[in-house]
DNA sequence: GTCAAGCGTTTGTCCTGACAAATGACGTCC
DNA sequence: GGACGTCATTTGTCAGGACAAACGCTTGAC
């Protein structure tokens, strides 16, 4: 499960909620110093910009061939951990793949597979004729397809749910189109008021195909919808989201403890499982001051 | 350049703007029929659920070895086109990799690389012991790090830009933290009013490190900021975004032709190049009815 | 009749080997 | 001194082979 969205924003105004860890001062125009991570076996005097004091540690790397964990994955995890812990500083050049493979007793394809997975995550950049370089650590995970409930919980806010509606009813035009069922056919409709620390945060309206999974009101008040779906054996695969804003209607405002006309953040989402079936259509509104979507985008070459 | 966000929403209300192509009716619980794309060379009588009338066409695939385009990429593009054009229906099983490689005169790793790139895009799902299956065609590209200008232009709206400010000034706390420069140091500040069809759509405030690239006002009125940055040789790598909503302030409202207190969609974004340098911090507000962020999320296994 | 074991299929992982292309630094020529 | 070509380095691409693991179906046993 990767790729997500929706991180809580505790602040009152949507200013700049990103939790920047210790804003590092980088003079403009300067590029992070280049240095090599691994000591090159005394080959040529070529390509050895071991600038920042020659190699603090050679960076311990090893793989366990008796483990059932794939070798490329073991290596990728170690490199990723090294980046996260700062043992591989941004800008550092990884030794070349051939040496690295030889050092670890692996083949080059295996090493490449490990590095490639990190490149895909945005942690490293490869340049032909140059090498593989560690990217600035600002990069976090791309984002995960997570639920509001999980987001609130991991943020330490005690999420609460009030189920306003939980019924089977004819699908409206929007929900029917999103779920790919005929308009007017019966679907499951759920409406919930989600709160954090007892204060309302969002109004969640969801429509699901009938018969996909049981949705007892008790369960809905205890946990999130995605968690229930995953527990029912549904493999979430992709989602299509649309995020906008609008003014609160009277009824919404009352539920969310806002005044009518207050700005609300809106999100419509259709989620698909790995067979391509639409398994959920959600139409959510969030209190503007209480919530913001935060996510990371990667540019793939 | 992949991974993006921000697609125009012409509609007045943030209803369900996704351009669903012909909402296909799929009875609940049904899984798309399984059929094979390629005729299996008359092997065993095993695994041949060529249900839907045995193979309309064997799907023409070929690679050109004289082309400088990598073989795996040629194959990937052909498969992708086949999926998009419906020649590879959702649920279709691709023939096994070995046969496919043999048929095309390629090696299995090359075929795997092609398929893997499509799996990464979310177009296909692999299952050991089963095969590679085409996912529901609902999936579009993951999203690209695009600019509002490009979005409007590709949507056929004639984007216009009015430069309200273009100056060098001391960085405020927010911009300084985002760009990683000391507070109060000089940065480039740009403020633009972006319109479509002559109507204002968004108010764009951007801060850039000094000396990164020249920003003539004339150029800014002609094209988008990202396009200028790319033209200046800057390789955009990742961005951190936060999307929220708030009420319009007086000054904003006047510029955007809204009334004070009207709901606005807000977006803060810090963009990094491939060396990890922050190259742009943007603080944008969009008219709620005129714009919505639309994007696709993929769940990576 | 039901459950477990067996078997073939298919992808997952890994290896060895090879050549091509881009990059950056050096040396040479003008 | 500056422009150019040359060269070593490094990643990109591709081939061919091998074994392991998961899956689905059939077969067999109870």
Textual characterization of the structure:
Two copies of one chain form a homodimer. The first copy, chain A, is α+β, with helices and mostly antiparallel strands. Chain A is built from eight helices and eleven strands. Chain A has helices at 71-84, 97-104, 108-121, 148-154, 173-179, 217-222, 225-231, 250-256, and strands spanning 7-8, 93-94, 124-127, 131-134, 159-170, 186-196, 199-209, 236-247, 263-273, 278-287, 291-298. In chain A, strands 5-6-7-10-9-8 form a six-stranded antiparallel sheet. The first copy, chain A, has a three-stranded antiparallel sheet with strand order 2-4-3. Chain A has a two-stranded antiparallel ribbon with strand order 1-11. Mean pLDDT of chain A is 75; it is low at 1-57. Chain B binds a DNA duplex (30 and 30 nucleotides) through residues 43-44, 46-47, 68, 70-72, 96-98, 106-110, 112-113, 126-132.
